Every structure is written in C-alpha cells, then in structure tokens.
Amino acid sequence: MDILFGNKPLIKEEEVEWALDFSENQVIRNLPTFTDKFQKAYSENNFYHPIENNYWTTGFWTGEIWLAYEHACEKKDGNEDALRAAGEIQVKSFLNRIEQKIEVDHHDMGFLYSPSCVAAYKLTGNELAKKAAIMAADQLITRYHPVGEFIQAWGAMDAPENYRLIIDCLLNLPLLYWASEETGDDKYREIAEKHIHTAIKNVIREDYSTWHTFFFDMKTGVPDHGATCQGYRDGSAWARGQAWGVYGCALAYKYTKREEYIELFRHVTQYFLEHLPEDMIPFWDLEFTDGDEQPRDSSSASIAACGMLEMIKYMEKDEAELYKGYAQKLMKSLYDNYAVKDFKASNGLVLHSTYSNHSPYNTCNHYGVDECNSWGDYFYMEALTRLHKDWILYW
Ligand code: GLY
Prior knowledge:
Layout: H1 13-30, E1 38-39, E2 50-51, H2 58-75, H3 80-100, H4 109-124, H5 127-141, E3 144-145, E4 150-151, E5 164-166, H6 174-183, H7 187-203, E6 213-216, E7 223-227, H8 239-256, H9 259-274, H10 298-311, H11 317-337, E8 353-356, E9 367-371, H12 374-388
Antiparallel strand pairs: 1-2, 3-4, 5-6, 6-7, 8-9
This protein binds glycine.
Glycine is lined by residues 168, 230, 240, 355.
C-alpha cells in the first residue's frame, strides 16, 4: 500500500495534553448552561444553544462530560466532583427519556446511550445508567427486521419507503453487545451480528466507497438499492458516511473477530484517505476537494481517527504504526487549523463541521453547515483520549 501524506506532521504529546486540558475546561465552562439541558446538535455562529433531551445527538454532550471527568480524575485537578455530578444529572434525564419513550422511535439508541449511560456505568458503576442503557438496547432491537436481517433506521416500521438501514448504525451496535454481556442474554448480540453482516455486505461498494442508506424489499428482504440522504448525490461518498464505515468496520471486527472486516477496514480507510484534500480534513462529501467552494466536515476526521486507533489494537506492529500515524496526522491538522483555542470564539471544541447540507440531488434538510457539531466535539475528545492513554471504550 502506498503511504499517503508522508510529509505531514504528527500531533505531539504536549499538543494532545493541551487540547485535552482545554476541552475539559471548555466542558466545565459549559456546565452552568448544559447540565439540566443539552447542547443542540450544531452550533449557530459557533455557539451552541441549550435543548431538552429530545434529539438523537444529546448523548455526545454527556459523553464529553464523561471524557472530561476521566481527564480530571487523572490530573486530580479539582473538577472531578462537578463533572461527575453533572454526568449523573444527565443520566437521570436519559433514564426518564427511555422510560417515557421521548423521541426514541429510531435506531440511534447507541449514539444516545453508549457515551452517556454505558460510560457512566463503566466509570462509576451507576445502576440507574445500567438500567437506562439496557432499556435502550431493548428499544433498539424492536427495530430489527428478520426479513432482510437488519435494524431499520428511521420512521414507521410498516412502510416500504422506510425499509432501509444506514451506515451510521454500525456505531449503535456496541450497545447491543454490552447489553448481552451485562444481562447474559444473547438475543442482543445475535441481532447486532445479523445487522453488521447485512450492512457491511450492502453499503460498501465495489470501489470501497459507501452508500449512506440501503433499501431492502419489504416482502422478501432481498437487497434493493442504495441511496443517499446527507451525501451530495446517490453515487458519491458522503464524508461522514465513509468515516462511520472506517470506525464501523473496526468495531465490527472488535465484536465479531471476522477476519474479512479487517480487510474491509483497510479498503474503506484507503478510500477515505485517498479522497482527502491537502490538509487532510474532508469536505462534506468526498466528491469535493481543494478548489471546490464547499464546506468541510471536520467531524469526519475525528471519527475516522477513532476508528483507526481502535483497529490498530488488532494489527501487527508495522501496520498498526501506519494507521496510528494517519490518526496522529488527522489530529494534528484538526488541532492546528480547526480546533477552538479561545473560549470567547466558541463554546464548542472543533469548528467547520457540517451536519446536513442540502444539494439538488439529496433528500436532507439544510442545517448545521460549517459549524461545530456535538459529535465532532465528542469524537475529537475521544481521539485525543485514545492518543493519551489506553482508553476503555464507551462503545
Ligand atoms: N448519524 C447522522 C449523522 O451522522 O449526521
């Protein structure tokens, strides 16, 4: 394999440390506004506004609190109690959300409950968090279709126009593995495994770019066709979808140990890297590159870095060093050119992400373009934490 970006610098240990310190302090500064409330999915003019716990993204903010808590505990800097208390308040909100079934009729239970409640349980043994996360896993498996063997992403379960999975869902599945581990009931793991297999078989194209969404025939379960929602056009590779693919293949391997997923990880990652612009931070769709007047999606860089840092645990030394190097280069570029360094400029962590950019050829709404977004901030902190220590996953 050709080594790409050979001349790019790696993020230094002291830069990782600085960025983690800044992130922890930024979380602390945000607590007065965002303890009883949550950060909106995306900033407006680089500032997040508070929302109730009723959107698919709120777990990322709670995840930032837990990552900051881990860092504070390591440094013993006096912020530990405030962070833990805020995390515990948010856990109660997540328990209430799943008990009351507030906006949980979709597949994003993993995005919601892994970085919030699984994290809280793993770090502090919080029993309410465990209860909430198991209820969320129960909710997630209600979306499984035996006909087609996949978990449906969005919408009513009995409508052919909703009979599809999306690549993002690979990050929702660790919740099911965790639930099987905790309860001793294999049903969660079995569904996760079926979905992973169906997803990976269908969303990865021959050239290792990826479909955002994939439809199945509702009567027979036969794979039907791919389509984009948030990418530029059907045949293009939505940058974040490709990044979910990188991290998704790494997690698929972690949980199934199927060798073919390592090979797919290599190819999907290669496609991602080969379609990056000069500074390594992707435009919102990999169709675009330097010279195109298009917004970036910096969150994809952090997500892909996390996937690489997970996958290297299962690789031989030389290959592991190669992917660690890519992750360090992605993080260096984010740190130098995209990360917030002055809290007066933003209450987020990473600028220039894109949530949902409408094009003439896609079906999504237009919001959160060239802003911070909540998962961009969370995965930036996760990647920094992974570079800093041997991190126990929330996923
Ligand atoms: N999972 C939705 C997104 O990445 O925007």
